[in-house]
Specification:
Layout lengths: L1 H4 L17 E8 L9 H5 L4 E11 L4 E10 L5 E11 L3 E6 L4
Antiparallel strand pairs: 1-2, 1-5, 2-3, 3-4
């Protein structure tokens, strides 16, 4: 009975000609804010958060880096949609590292 329930799924893969974007790990600074009342001495010591975003770099226009972390395949195995997009001002980026062979 178990054999009848198993369905073989063919998993698509990313075609670099159809989806020419490279995958990156990006370290960047983000703004920190606090809604609480705090001593000014504590507030003066606050620092921006260091963050990491990973995804396909789909745009570097307008002084921004735009990443998508997820992509969705169409029935013909092309990619025309992305999800979990993050736009980071280039001035906030500390380091970019291309991740190969993903």
């Amino acid at each position: 009975m178990k054999d009848k329930l198993k369905t073989k799924i063919i998993l698509p893969d990313i075609d670099p000609e159809d989806f020419p974007y490279k995958f990156y790990k990006c370290w960047w600074h983000d703004i920190i804010s606090c809604e609480n009342w705090e001593d000014l001495t504590t507030i003066k010591k606050s620092k921006p958060a260091t963050c990491i975003t990973m995804g396909w770099l789909i745009s570097t226009k307008n002084n921004n880096y735009v990443f998508v972390a997820d992509v969705s395949f169409n029935d013909d195995e092309t990619i025309t949609q992305g999800g979990n997009a993050t736009t980071i001002p280039k001035s906030n980026v500390l380091k970019l590292k291309e991740i190969k062979n993903i």
